[in-house]
Amino acid sequence: MRTNILDALGNSLLSVEKPARYVGGEYAIIRKPEDTKFRIALSFPDLYEIGMSNYSIRILYSMLNALEDVACERVFVPAPDFEELLNRKNLPLYSLENARPVRDFDILAFTVGYELSATSILSVLDMGGVPLRSADRGPGDPIVVAGGSALTNPAPLSNFLDAVFIGEAEQVWSELIEQLRDAKTKGAGRRELLELVHQHPNIWYPGKSEKTSRAVWQGFGCNPFFQKFPLPGMSAVQDHGVVEIMRGCPNGCRFCHAGVVYRPHREKEIDIIMEEAEYLFHKYGYREITLSSLSTGDYSQLQSLVDLLTARFSDRQVSFSLPSLRVNSFTLPILNRISEVRKSGLTFAVETPELAGQLSINKEVPAERIIEILNAAKKFGWRSAKFYFMIGLPQDSESTPQAIIDYLEEIRKKTGVRIHLTVNTFIPKPHTPFQRSYQLSEEKALNTIHSIRNGLNRKLYKFGYHSPFASILEGLISRGDERVGGIIEKAYYAGARLDAWEEYLNRDLWRKILQEESWDPISEVSRPRSADEVLPWDSIDIGVRKSYLEAEYRRAEKGELTDPCKQLCRHNCGACDDEKGIDLAQPALNDKPENKVQPIENARKFKRFLFSFTKEGPSRFLSHKNLVTVFQRLFTRQEIPVQYTQGFNPKPKLEFAHPLSLGVSSYHEVAMIFLDEDFEPREFSRLCNTSMPEGMRIISGTFFDFPQGVKSVMSYYHGSDYELKVRRNFAETHEQEIQNLFSPHLDTPLEQEENYVFRFFYPDGKADVKGISRLLRSSFTDNLEEFELTRIKTYFRSEHPDSVPVSLPGSSSGP
């Protein structure tokens, strides 16, 4: 059953933080027909702004919606305030595409990136009307499937998941969904569909007798990924385009879980990367694009790639960032080239400062090399750098805290850069050479962190750390067995939510749950494991031989380095065979950068251009800051010839007459840009209206000269006509209060079947006039859902003070 969520929730959404999380309607959203045969609810189990930043969910959403008669719709975790609102309204958690309750899908699929999502998974199940335990689900419930790097030990969540997919989803997941769709079309019920899921070699489920193997997508390097994914209206945490240039990593860092899970490493061809970057620019309007991988600096053709990208895009105000550069793959020419449009930060993941520790983890990061890099970077304008260290690694000693201090002090004194330091606690993850190691206790981790912080001058360093207690929980879920599932369930029912967020993590709640157990969960999962001990994750064949992991652990104890993976590799780890192996990108056929052209602005004459637009439906819940970003990306992807600001981060020159408060609808918003005077105004409206979020539409536009002395569209604003709809019962009992609130601007109300409609002109610049939304909020805090406020028309001041105000030339208003 579908629900019109805006009708069901209305202005009660204004009682929660960031209501745009829950309304959908973004540009490029995909809505399949109501009669689509097979439906999948896809969830990254976190808040909207985190889930929309995740690359895996973009892949899955695009891939599944490309299938015939398959609909994939997004579901994210509700924040506590929205969870309370849903409960109060007796509404289930729903998808953003069609507001369909989670329980009404054929499959509920989770892609899980970190272990502290465990209670969030239960939140989606519970709020969506799906029984938490798989044993309690019946014919009318969806099949609950999960995958992702955080589930290479599925045992702790085995009570809640019907199946766990191990590995990379491209190709094999699409094939499985097509089989399920066809089976359902022929009449198969939930039990038959689940049996079909369990037959897949890359699917794990409780009680499976044989090992589950990991799926590897060997077509990564030669298949472009053109995402078909909604563009977030509100800001996502990582609000930029992403091109994955390499999957996996050649460096065998012994602590790194992802480095094992994504073996063998595969590089994407340069021409495909260029195609994907062009697509993100033209389809989505991204002007910041990340070249993503576990170790971007190890991409074999990086210099050629950076030269080609920068030459093609820098004059279009597009910048590229390289987030994962190892010190030994760091080159200043690359860094300087990539920063021609705007500079990104310098980040060094050192992990451990002493040579013995670096040899143990198979990652050398000499301070001398960092000093060399930073001194060279200062010449190009960099003044600060971020450093990451881990504590509790197997080779750490009592001297490690002081060694970290000495390491950083040497760098600071010899470079003069500002240092931002973050310290994390090491967690021995499954399927790594250190999987049997001891995990540092919370008390020891805090003591080590305080030793480091107290040894640094706080005026010279910015210091942060990841909560050691959160690391203990992460270790519990990543290294535990089936018993941990009971702890997760108790914590959820006690109120645990969104545990990856510092502001939501309830330590006292978790401590109480852990203390009530008949066994000692923390000691059990933190202890070292013997070489012959069966591990909870031994049922998963990750593709790397256990003998190789054991050999790497012995090399770590001896302080011996292991060479990076190569195509003719002698490591014999098991990740490569006749069907899968390392793929390296070929040199570009034309590796000479394109000749730069002069920025097009130099050849154009720009003129003020006023345009009006609507802001209704889900778009009324976008903040003004979000709205600015919506237009910036709109102008980019539609190649509207607007003028940009100068300086570090160029943006289109854009100004609004009178920004609306959150939640207020409008039939007539007015904004101004500087547009090429030869551009046809009707073409502006046509182009923009082909790719706007739901509820937004360009009404009209015109070149416009301000009267003498007027410098901005905001200073030219005079006031607006508004319409205030109030539910009839509430209006009849509060009419006098409403009249008093807006007098003398209020007209006689119109009576409708369900509402009273008050219309009034609200002027700008009056000392006795406050913002309408603030008036309503302060006067009717507990009754905001009784009101619906809409701006009907916007007026400018005329040239003569005594004359009638004027509206935007050529504009119209009203629904």
TrEMBL record:
Pfam families (UniProt xref): DUF2344, Radical_SAM, Radical_SAM_N2
PANTHER family registered for this protein in UniProt: RADICAL SAM DOMAIN PROTEIN, SLL1084 PROTEIN
Superkingdom as given in the UniProt entry: Bacteria
GO MF term set: catalytic activity; iron-sulfur cluster binding
Matching PROSITE patterns: RADICAL_SAM (PS51918)
Residues annotated as domain Radical SAM core: 235-459
Name used for this protein in its record: Radical SAM core domain-containing protein
